[in-house]
Amino acid sequence: MRVALFLLLLVNLAFFAWSQWLAPKQAQLPVSPKVDAPRLQLASEAMPVAAGGSCVTVGPFATSELAARARQTLTDSGYPSVPREVATSVPDGYWVYLESPASEASERRLLDRLRKGGIAEAQIVGDPGARRISLGVFYEEARAFAQSERVAKLGLLPQILGREKSANSIWLDLTLKTGAPPLEGQKFQAGDTELEFRTCPAGGAASAGAAPPPAEAPQSQNPTAQ
């Protein structure tokens, strides 16, 4: 699966770079007009071009390996880039839970009620005074809602909390050639990932001698997620 993702990323990025920046502008031969042809535009309505070699950044790349492959594609196309690591947060599943009763005896009765109702994964979590009854963590929102509905049928009021975790993504800053069309805001699919172009942040610039992207940070795993 990872190999296929890498190949799709390379193909999409390479074609996009070629079509946007490298494809030769050949004279168009006369052809028969199509019924669904776009309307003619005035010169003032045409897309403006980037002047003076504007800096754009493309990403986000989830791993340093993906960023390195895309960076090589850009370099081979004559566009050296500078990798930049950005701290972000990403979804980390959906927690289904109940507020815990005030007493331990009530907690035990609630757990027994849940387990008799088929919610075997129910367990008490947290410190005294701030405890909850965990009903499971699910990576898919639909499964979290299904679990919530099962618990609701027992006459209880479960809650769903979307969780997030810290992650790092990599963006590649590069300088467009003078006269290239602006790319900011454009998006394209590269395998299972949607990449986009943005304006470089303040101080962002592309250079051929930039250091390689940082090593991929290990991702934490949650063994209780389902």
Description:
The protein is α+β, with helices and mostly antiparallel strands. The protein has a domain of 76 residues: Alpha-Beta Plaits, CATH 3.30.70.1070. The protein contains 4 helices and 7 strands, in the order H-E-H-E-H-E-E-H-E-E-E. The chain has a 7-stranded antiparallel beta sheet with strand order 3-4-2-5-1-7-6. Helix 1 packs parallel to helix 2. The two termini are 21 Å apart.
Question: What's this model, at a glance?
Answer:
26% of the residues lie in helices and 28% in strands. By secondary structure, it is α+β, with helices and mostly antiparallel strands.
Task: List descriptors.
single chain; alpha+beta; Alpha-Beta Plaits; 7-stranded antiparallel β-sheet; 7 strands
Poorly predicted spans: 1-7, 17-35, 37-49, 206-224
Would you give the CATH topology of the domain at 90-165? Alpha-Beta Plaits
* CATH homology superfamily of the domain at 90-165: Sporulation related repeat
Q: What is the rounded Rg?
A: 26 Å
Q: How far apart are the termini?
A: 21 Å
Write the CATH architecture name of the domain at 90-165: 2-Layer Sandwich
Number of strands: 7
What spatial form do the alpha-carbon principal axes imply?
Answer: elongated
**Which structural class do the helices and strands define?**
alpha+beta
Question: Oligomeric form of this entry?
Answer: single chain
Mean pLDDT: 74
**Largest beta sheet: what is the strand line-up?**
3-4-2-5-1-7-6
Number of helices: 4
Proportion of residues in extended strands: 25-35%
Order of helices and strands: HEHEHEEHEEE
Helix content: 25-40%
Kindly provide the name of the CATH class of the domain at 90-165.
Alpha Beta
Largest sheet: 7 strands, antiparallel
